């Protein structure tokens, strides 16, 4: 079903025992704004809360089915929308913390939950009596006088049932249920293996000669990592703040190769091997798509997205990839030529060489280095600047709170108020890496916006990142790339904060996958605007503003390696589509299949045994299956959308107001293409992105 089935709320009717009274998921929160009581939640609370939530949700579904009145939008569609509050609430916390602050016990609980939740989903989506009521309402939809959001909710629910197997025979329903459960467990195991494989590796250095080329901030961070692990010397991990600087700055090629290989062979063999799990996931998705009447899983997934079909997506990728290849190869050739002139003795650049030599080339070409910029981007100043940008654009304000419980001491909480002073949202910010958190950066929510019985619930929004922590010698300093990441995730957060509508399944970021990245990616543009950077970038020690020449270099270097970066991103989308347009499993192994696919558009030499698929969490456990192209699709949208800000002024409140009204607040209440045209007045063209990146002749 389209409506989220994993979903918090209070279940007062279920508090029949003393144990339930002690369970924070089954009592009304006493925290400010009804926020989650993370300080009270313990692992032993999850399973009872899930069990109570499932029981409550089933009872609510049964009541809808048992209703003797003629099916109506209110007693069927709306009733379904509001069912399962307790279940949704505990799930939104549990699964978010599984990503941000997990532990072994939670992972064991997740394995127990998977069949329970799959069974509940099947209880709803394969319920013939429930579907019959939905179908009755759907067939008379044009006679009901429904509003736009009501019609969208009805259509989404009907299609959700059909796409969820409601029209299958009893025999096929049983197969669909079995495969769905197996898929859930396989995706969970995939994610566990990626995290475990990431945490299993440490590059331990005890010889100072092996630190050659590394800036002081990198060495300091590595020393602290080693100390945390009970090791002498310095330690580097596969977490981005550790791994990426090592590849960028280390002049010890053998060690760069070692850590690059470790990262790019994660989960390809050994204890945490994902090679067969990838094939299992792909096979199950093919089976599910086939039984529902689709040739491939991509056909099934894309039906509900802006692109609509695999031909559109493949054409989109090809139309960007082929002209970008020339620029990407030139980027690599330029870096290689520079490297040869400056001491590189190899016959070609390998993947573990590129970050190192491209950083040096960037410094030579633009006199710009990440290390030089970091002192001007103290995290606390960047937080104020990102919030300040939202204030200038939308009039909203942020106040840090110390009385709202958090799930880890690193997490900060802010109350967000609208321009009129009314409460808008709670915003949780989790900035630093730890062993219990997966890599990368993302936005999520502990509660979305909705209105029920005339009472509005405002959202609890969270962004999770992995920035470099403060050291004993310096505060948290972030790179310009990390500032860009912060703005990106904050764009998602604004999408959630500004949510406005009745139905939670249609508000906030509940939009088609290839539209959801527009609000995030458009925010990245401000990281390259001098007027914005000048407003906050100051040296953390001296307080001196960032020199104009450095800003000029940031802007000049904006499209540095744009061809290479474009092709790299498109490679991921191309690989995703290759897996999800299969009609049967390939004869090759997972690693071999990936290398065969990507060999069509080579930029860097292939490395035997290396593969991204085995750690490609976005598509195998993160909801982006047959959807990774969405990042580039959204880049096309944002290139066109931001051009309006450039035309009218980057802080123009008329434009930002229209963006809020037509995009951010609307969620999924209308088709994404309609919302975009309402804002921009026309459909975007891929050429807008090529021109923005300078990939035109």
Description of the structure:
By secondary structure, this protein is of the alpha+beta class. The chain folds into four domains: 12-167, Neurolysin, domain 3 (Orthogonal Bundle); 201-265, no CATH class; 272-368 and 561-620, Neurolysin, domain 3; 375-556, Neurolysin, domain 3, CATH 1.10.1370. The protein has 28 helices and nine strands. A five-stranded mixed beta sheet has the order 3-4-5-9-6. The model is unreliable at 1-19 (pLDDT under 50).
Cα separation of the termini: 47 Å
- Please estimate the helix content: 40-55%
Number of separate strands: 9
CATH architecture label name of the largest domain: Orthogonal Bundle
Spatially, the strands of the biggest sheet line up as 3-4-5-9-6
Q: Describe the biggest sheet?
A: 5 strands, mixed
Classify the secondary structure makeup into a structural class.
alpha+beta
Tally of separate helices: 28
- Indicate the CATH class of the largest domain: Mainly Alpha
- What portion of the residues fall into strands of 2 or more residues? 5-15%
Spans of at least 5 consecutive residues whose pLDDT stays below 50 are: 1-19
């Amino acid at each position: 079903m389209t409506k989220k089935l994993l979903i918090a709320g209070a279940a007062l009717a279920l508090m029949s025992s003393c144990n339930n009274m002690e369970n924070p998921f089954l009592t009304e929160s006493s925290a400010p704004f009804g926020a989650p009581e993370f300080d009270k939640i313990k692992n032993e609370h999850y399973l009872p809360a899930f069990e109570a939530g499932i029981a409550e949700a089933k009872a609510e579904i049964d009541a809808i089915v048992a209703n003797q009145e003629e099916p109506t939008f209110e007693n069927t569609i709306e009733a379904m929308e509001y069912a399962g509050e307790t279940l949704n609430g505990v799930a939104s916390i549990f699964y978010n913390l599984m990503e941000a602050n997990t532990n072994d016990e939670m992972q064991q609980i997740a394995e127990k939950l998977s069949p329970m939740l799959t069974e509940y989903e099947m209880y709803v989506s394969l319920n013939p009596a429930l579907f019959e009521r939905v179908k009755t309402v759907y067939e008379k939809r044009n006679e009901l006088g429904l509003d736009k959001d009501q019609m969208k909710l009805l259509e989404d629910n009907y299609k959700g049932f059909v796409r969820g197997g409601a029209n299958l025979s009893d025999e096929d329903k049983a197969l669909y249920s079995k495969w769905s459960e197996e898929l859930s467990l396989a995706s969970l195991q995939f994610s566990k293996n990626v995290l475990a494989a990431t945490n299993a590796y440490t590059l331990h250095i005890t010889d100072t000669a092996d630190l050659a080329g590394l800036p002081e901030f990198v060495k300091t961070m590595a020393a602290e990592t080693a100390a945390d692990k009970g090791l002498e010397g310095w330690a580097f991990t596969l977490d981005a703040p550790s791994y990426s600087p090592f590849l960028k700055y280390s002049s010890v090629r053998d060690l760069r190769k070692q850590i690059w290989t470790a990262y790019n062979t994660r989960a390809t063999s050994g204890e945490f091997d994902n090679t067969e799990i990838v094939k299992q996931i792909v096979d199950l998705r093919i089976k599910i798509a086939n039984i529902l009447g689709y040739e491939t899983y991509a056909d099934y997934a894309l039906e509900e997205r802006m692109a609509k079909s695999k031909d559109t997506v493949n054409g989109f990728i090809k139309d960007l990839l082929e002209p970008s290849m020339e620029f990407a190869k030139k980027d690599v050739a330029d870096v290689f030529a520079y490297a040869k002139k400056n001491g590189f003795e190899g016959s070609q650049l390998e993947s573990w060489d590129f970050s190192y030599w491209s950083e040096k080339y960037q410094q030579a070409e633009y006199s710009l280095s990440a290390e030089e910029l970091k002192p001007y981007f103290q995290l606390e100043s960047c937080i104020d600047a990102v919030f300040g940008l939202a204030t200038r654009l939308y009039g909203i304000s942020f106040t840090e709170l110390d009385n709202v419980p958090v799930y880890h001491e690193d997490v900060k909480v802010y109350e967000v108020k609208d321009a009129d002073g009314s409460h808008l949202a709670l915003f949780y910010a989790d900035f630093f890496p730890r062993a219990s958190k997966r890599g990368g950066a993302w936005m999520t929510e502990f509660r979305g916006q909705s209105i029920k019985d005339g009472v509005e619930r405002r959202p609890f929004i969270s962004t999770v990142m992995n920035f470099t922590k403060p050291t004993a010698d310096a505060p948290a300093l972030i790179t310009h790339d990390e500032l860009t990441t912060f703005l990106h995730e904050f764009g998602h957060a604004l999408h959630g904060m500004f949510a406005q509508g009745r139905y939670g399944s249609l508000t906030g970021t509940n939009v088609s996958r290839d539209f959801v990245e527009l609000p995030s990616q458009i925010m990245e543009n401000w990281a390259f605007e001098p007027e914005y950077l000048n407003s906050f970038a100051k040296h953390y020690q001296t307080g001196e503003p960032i020199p104009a020449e450095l800003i000029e270099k940031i802007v000049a270097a904006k499209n540095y390696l744009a061809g290479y970066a474009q092709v790299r991103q498109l490679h991921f989308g191309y690989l995703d589509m290759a897996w999800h347009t299969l009609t049967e499993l390939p004869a090759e192994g997972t690693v071999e299949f990936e290398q065969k696919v990507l060999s069509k558009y080579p930029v860097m030499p292939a490395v035997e045994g290396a593969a991204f698929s085995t750690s490609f969490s976005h598509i195998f456990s993160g909801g982006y299956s047959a959807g990774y192209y969405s990042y580039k699709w959204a880049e096309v949208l944002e290139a066109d959308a931001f051009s309006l800000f450039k035309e009218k002024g980057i802080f123009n409140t008329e434009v930002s107001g229209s963006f809020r009204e037509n995009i951010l607040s609307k969620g999924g209440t209308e088709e994404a293409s309609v919302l975009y045209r309402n804002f921009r007045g026309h459909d975007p063209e891929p050429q807008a992105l090529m021109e923005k990146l300078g990939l035109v002749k």
